[in-house]
Every structure is written in C-alpha cells, then in structure tokens.
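Run folding on both entries below.
>entry_1
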Amino acid sequence: MFNYSFSKRVLNTSINALLISTSIASTAWAQEFIAPPMVNISAGSFNMGSVVGSDSAKPMHNVTLAAFQMAKYPVTIAEFKIFAEETGYSPKPTCNDYLGENWMSGPEDSGTASWDNNRYVFSDYQPVSCISFQDATDYANWLSNKTGHKYRLPTEEEWEYATKANTTSRYFWGDDVNDTQACLYANIADQSGEYFASKQYGASYWGFLEHANCDDGEPYVTLVGMYRPNPFGLYDMLGNMSQYLASCYYPDYNPRTRDEMDVDKCETLAHRGFDWHFPPQPHTDRGRVKKEWTPGADVGFRLAIDGQSNKVEPSTIKFEAALKIAQIHRFETRAKLPKAPKNIQLFQLEKHLNSNNYRLRWQPSDDPRVIGYEVYQSKSPASHLMGLFYKKYYNKLQTVDASTNSFDVTLPEEGGSFRLETVTKDMNSLPSNAAVEVKAKFVSIPGRVNMKNTLALENVRLAYQEAKADKPELYYLSRFYKGFKQDKVTATFNVEVKESAWYRLNYTGSSNKAGKLFELWQGNHLLAEINYDVNIDDKTSQRHKVYLQQGKQQIQLTAMREGFDFWRLGWLDFTEVKN
C-alpha cells in the first residue's frame, strides 16, 4: 500500500514555486518615466448604484460623464519605483501586511511593511500598494509634470461607468450566479486562495467570506493584466487590488455639493474594485478609507485623464512588452492546484441497519500527476457543517495509492463524515465534499435545541466556541453578510414535541441590525417571526411565543438579511406556556 506524507518541505517547495520572482522583476528602467497605457472612454450616461443590497449603493441615480481616458492597468511597482528613486520617496515602513489564521485581523500595533517590501511583493509588475491617497496623488502630479499630460485619479462615477462598460448584468462578464466564470476575469478569493492560505496560515474562507467556485491560479496579489479585460479593454477593474478614487465617501448616494465632494476637505475617501481577498462583488460595491489610516497592502490606484487621445509614448510600448514577458513567465511557473476527488459516496457493507462498517468510494482522477489520495474522518457528527479550516474537525486516516478508489471505514454509533484530498508529488488538492452518514436525532420539546443537532444547513456554517470559566461551550450558526449577496440561511432540525401547546421561545443570537432575526417554519406553515433588539437579552426575555403540534416533526429556521451584517444564532429554548 502506498504511504505518502505531505511533508513541510514539499509544501514549502510548491509555495516557493508560486511566489518566486519573475525573471525580470528587478528591471531597471533607463527612461525618466513610464507613460501608462490608456484607454479612451466615450462620453455617456448610466445608472449608478443599485436598488438592492448595501445602503451605501442607494439610491440608484443617473449620471452623465464627458469623455475621458482610463489607465489600462493599475499603477505597478515598476512605474512607481522611478518616481520613488527620483523624488527620494522613502516613508517610514508602517504598512500592515499581516496575514494569519484570522486573515487580516492581526496585531494592534502598526505594521512594518512598505510599498517595495511586503509579504505580497514578488514582481515589479504587481500593482503598487502600501501607499497613501496623498502618495497616489503626488505620483499623478509628478507624472503630469514629466509628460505634459494632466494625470489624476478617476472619480467614483468614472470608475463605475468604466467598469460596467455599458453592461447591465451583475458583473461585466455576465450574471454568473454560481461564480464559476469569475476566475477568467479577476484575481479573487478562489480555490488557490483557500488552499495556500489554509496551508500557510490556517486561514479559511469557509463559513466566512466564502470563495468563488473556480481557480484563478493565484492566492494573493499577482501581476496586472493576467486576466481577461472588460468590454472597454480595462484590466483588473475588479479583484487583485482595490483602487483609491478622487471622490469623498458618504454612506449613501444622495446628492452632494461640489464643496462636499472636494477631496481636500473630506476625511473619508472612496475606493473601489475590491481585492484578491474577496469573492466576486457587483460593480456597485463600495469601499472607504480615512486619510489618517495607515496605508494597507490591499489598496493601490490607477490613473485617468480628461478628454481622449490616440498617441502612444515609446515608454508605453516598452512597458507593455516587458509586462507581457513577465506574464508569460508567471503563467509557466506558478503552481497548478490539482482537482479535489469527485463523487464521494459511502456504502454500508452489512445488510443489517446497525452495522457501522462502510466502504468509501470516489471517482478516480484523470490527472497524470496524481500519486495518491488522503482520507480524513470527522471528529464529530457535525464536522461537515463546521466553518473555517476543515482539518480542525477532521483526522487523517491514511493515504492510499492512486490506483485505489475505495477504502473501508468504520463509523461511531452517532455517525460522521469523510473527506479526501488528491495527492501529487508537489501538493495536495482542496478537500472533497463530505460523504456523510449521520443518524437522525430528535430533540425533545420542551427543551433546548442546540445548533450542533441540525440535520442540514444552507448558506450558513456551524461555529464552535470553547467553554470558558464563566461560559459553557457553544455551537452556533454564523454568517457574514457582505452587503451585496443576499442568500437565504436555512437550518433544519428533527424535534419531538411532547404536547400540543404554546411555548415561550428564548434564544441566544445577535446582529448588526435590529428587526427580524429569523423565521421559524414547519413545512409551509410559518410558526413565528423572531425579532432582535440589542437592548433586550432574549436568552431570558420570554417575549416570543410559538404554537407547536405534538409529535415527531421537522422545523426549519430561515434568515434573510439586507446589507452588511454579522449574523449569529445559538440555541433555541422552548418552555411550555402554562396559562
């Protein structure tokens, strides 16, 4: 039997292969500046904002713009380096490029990274970051003096108009409801991001931001122009690096005066386009940054010019030729993530229902690199519902040879689940979907329904909080609503109601917003709408009431939020109303 261990040395080898510098990463530019490739954007009108989603994108309103030019790519390190060398730009390295188990939630103190030295830099052809809005403006003014063209940062209106590029779909490449095409057009939170972040830092998108159902080949920031452009011929408008804009930020789209929109007079500025860390977001999603905030490793900028021109500078031609070489090198050297095993199934070996012996089967991979499969078993019946890095909730059983597509396993009485990883010489795949066999458990009412007893979850993950001196352990449902995608959360439970009666319903939960927290259903019958008020402790409030019929049945809770929200729900407690 083949026995393969995913060693730390092999992991580091694959990570190094993915993060190596391009062969021309330290290109020295002889000329005084690089004129960025520009795209002519015709004058026109469009509907800016949205009627759904985050309040910051409302109200939708019509905007008319004069013709302008937008840079084909965000400003790169190669371009910014010339400015830094000539002007002596060398600020104190305070940029926070932290990345860990909780993603960017790192130390309280300032960072120590800089625009030319942070954890994401491996090529001069990546977008420059770790700079302030003022740095970006200073660069635009410097380049204007060098070229005689008046470069500036685009406004928020220009950015959205140029990104939509006369499209009306969710994204400029289409609605892409399942996010399977997004990786062709943007460097976003994807399968490669999930793999490398979990292997390197124990971070995971599962149960947090989630990631797109595709692989863009990059875990973090990559070179500009690596993906398909939008219909106007602009690259990296979405993903890779967010971009500063020459607009003040307000939490809505109500009309503002010219004075209110003067970036010299406001403290909060707009940035758009999100970055590699986020799954696809509509064109209307907005970001903000305060001038006094320390520059981050996730925001860069691109340039714009009033009017139109077809003139191409010699430095532009040279830059694009060098960029193309760097892109080809990157495509050829970055790691290629193998596919996870498919069609995972569990078959009971004995005929009698009490048998705990099963056979795990899966579809063999047709990838010639595959040398085996790693088999993982759950630590608890609820492991397949848990969010974050799955290896916290699964133990490795064994690695089997690539010629094998089945494995005999034993489940505990309460059941459990299994996942597999495809193994190659250099790296593993992400885990497969779980093969689950959990015995149905009926929770008695009156009593407490714990979230770990759920039969099924949709658009939400189970989370776990360890017991503390003053608090018992807690399993709870957790969902981060990003403000632009409004999936309905559902959780289903088997319950046995001892007596038909009215019951008081208390719960532990929270939200960023007051109002309806969840609905409780029995089939198509709405049992109750449960509200949330930050000033009321609903663990003991006794203010919600629901009527339940006697007998074994399924109940389902659902939740639908609009806008940005951290939604959380723990146990439900039912006590009979006696009078």
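>entry_2
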Amino acid sequence: MVFLFRQVPRKRLCYNRSRFRSVADEILKCADQMALTAAEMKGVLCEIAPVLAHARIQKIHQPGDRILLFELRVPTETHRLLVSCEPESGRLHLTSQPLPNPQRPPSFCQFLRAQVQGGRLKEVRQLDDDRILTMTVLTRHGVRTIVCALTGQTANLLLLDEQGRVLRDLNGHRPLLGQPYQAPTKRGSGAVQERAPRFDVHSGGGRFPVSYAIEAYYHDKERALVIDRAKRDRLRSLRKSLAKVLRRMEAWREDLANAGRYRDYGRYGELLKAHLTSITPGMEQITLVDYYDPVLPEVTLPLDRSKSALHNMNEYFKKHRKYVSADRELPNRIADAEREAGDLRREIRLIEDGRWSMQADAGRTTIKTASAPEKATPRGPFRRFVSADGLPVFVGRNAAENEALTFHLAKSDDLWLHARAVPGSHVVVRLARGADPPVETLRDAATLALLYSDLRKSGKGEVIYTKRKWVKKAKGQAAGAVVVTREKTIAVMLDARRLAALKERSHSSETAQ
C-alpha cells in the first residue's frame, strides 16, 4: 500500500531580485577590501620566511571551514602560521593565539596531515607579486607544494604533487584533481596595491611586528566580518523562504479556485439521490428540475456512463465535500502565508536599510530584528500526546515530519498507524520490545490517525496499524510515502470525549516538563 502526498509545484516567480543582489554585492565589496593585498602579503613573507626556513611541520589544524593553522617547529621554538581562505578576510601571518579545534578534523585537514605532516619546509615564496604564496615541503611521499591562493572570492588552498598536479583542494573542486595547477590571471591589482597602509608595525609585537599588527587588526574587525557574512546568509535564507511562501500561496489560491467549481455539487447530489431510479446504465447526462431554486429551472448533470447511479451520486457529494473543506481551510492558510510573506519582506527591508543587528548571547549567535517580536521556543517536532495507558504518542504534522517520525524516531517494535487509503499523518506509539499495545492506547492512537487525515470531515473511517518494522519507504516517491505489510485494520469514529482527554493529558505533560 503506497500513500502519495501532494507536492506544491515550483514555478518561476516575478519579484524584484535586483534589490537583493545589490545589497549582497555591496556587502561583498566592503568585505573584500578587508583581505590582505599582494603588497601586504609580501611584507609578511619578508618577516616570516627567514624564521621558518627548514622548519618541520609538527601539526596541522583546521579550526574553521576555511582556516588552516600550521604548527612549525624550528630549533628551540614553535610558531603557528595561520592561513585564512575566507573571501572577506584572506590573510597569512604568524599568530600568538591558539584557536579552538573541532573534535574530529575535517577531511581536508586529515588529508594534509597524511601528506605533509612531519615534512620539512624547503621554500616559501610569493608568485608574481600576486596574492598567491607557495610552501614547498619535503615529505616521505616526495616533494609536496601547498598553494595558498588568497584571491578574494576565488580563495583556495591546494596541495600539489612533484609534477605540480592537484592532489586535493580546500574548495572540493573535483575537476581540478589530477590537473596541473595554473595560477589565476592577475586582474585589477594595481588599484589595490595603492591602498593606504592599514597596519601599524611600530605599535609593538616583538620579533614579528607585521604579524602582530595584522593579528590585532583582524581581531578588531572580526565581528564586522561575522556580521557581514551573517547578513549575506540571512538575505539568502529570506529570499528562499519568501519564494517558497509565494509558491505555496499561489498553489493554495489555485486549489481554492478549482474547488469553487464544486460549490453547487451538494445540491446536484441531492437531486440525483431523489432520481436514482431514473438513471439507467450508459447514460451520459440527465436533465432534472432544480426544486432547490424558487424559479424551478432545469439543470443538466453529466454522468459517468461506466458507473452506476449510486456511484455518480457519491461522486457529486465527494466533490462538494472537497469544496467545503477547501473553503474552510484554504482562506486561513492563505491569510497566514500572507502574514508570513509580510514578515519576510519587512526583515529584508531591515537589512537593506541597515537596521539589522546581530547579538551574541551566552556564547551563541542569534539574529534579531528591530520589529520582529520574540516568539516562544517551540517544544520540538511532531504533535505529542499521552494515551490513556500513559504511553507516548507522536503524530507527524507534514510529509517531512512523517518521514522523520517513521524512519528516524520510531523503533522497530513501536506501533505505527495511518488512515486507510487517504492522505494523513503518520502516528507512532512508543512500545517496549515485544509488547502489544493496550486496547485503549490503540483506540487513542487510531482516533488521532483519523483526526489528522482526510477522513476527519466524515468523522469515521478505517485505520491500519502494524509494527514499525513492517513499514518501508516507497522508492522513488515523495517524502512520507511508504509501503506497508502485515497491517491490521480498526474501524474508528471521532469521539469528542476521547479527544478531549487526549488533549488534556498532552497539556498536563507539557506543564510537567
């Protein structure tokens, strides 16, 4: 048995993207001016190259996605060389501050360790007075070259073999692997080189005043870089969210318009009900007097010639129920989506107007806007209830939650339920291994499966149930589509007292937590 769920179609939306691009481009332009220039890199290299000559690479760390830290051992002392490939803050210098590292090193860091850790630096040089620096390392695998290309948006760190072919790169560009490395064409560097000096090398710093000045400068500017990056990320997220909401609204409006065609089908069904004996097999239409209209006009109703009179009547009632359901649910959904779209547009304007701020709270970075009210922290995914026997019951809210509930949260011996043959929520009851569900728990869970399905409006229907281990994901189908085996069926009617008790126990459980 396969349950398929409707997907909102993706359609091209017409709204002004140029405003978003201009804001993002301005942020990138300001951020790029904070990276080291070729002249500044030359100053750093002149300071550190003599000290690092013949140093041994003792350890390699990757404290950030695009930041590498090399521990270089020379006689009697160890130096930390920081290489940042961040587009906004590309730089290279010695650092006196240790940086926190992830518990598990990223794959690129592990590869560098396997290839060059323990090797000895042979040469450090700058390519063509550009923002590209190479470190030649003698290793047990042969000669390896580390290329630090700190070139703004195209910044990268690559490892080359003896023939100059790319073994691995930080950006993960697979087409580069095995290809000879070619330095990018130098463009527009003259204007950058003429920038006024930014680093006060006379402010102290002992043996490495240039590195000290750069480290102090970026320490002061780091928060601005974080905010600029967060603005870009937030702007990108807002654009995606707005497009999704607009697509959803468009689909709902289309559904509402389509359902409006069935407004009078309830009356037509009643007319057919009163004339069932007049419908003979093979009829394609029937003309009846509409006695619900004071004028008593005649109406011609299309029929399915391959179906019985009863089936034709039920089809009219079914389409009318679709209209009633859409007319009840969709206007509220559209109104909620319009409010959500308005909130997204307001936050976008806050970023455009420069009134967006980021605050750090207890070590966590949170985004706040001037107009957005603080919302209560959600209790987590899934609807949660407690059965009459005290067992936890989980109900998915949508296709994604159905998928997560069934295939991530539920255990193999848990009870799984779903309304028969109609779209609806997955329901899971947590059971001990080998235990059978108590009768009242089964009826509670089945009631919830009926309540959160398309059978809700009829107030009664059949619910299938089985062990979670007999539920498999349907290959090639949308999220939440499953194949069920060894299922049993229970007939359920919505019981107001049972539902009230479930909601009361659920509320009591939340209060206790």
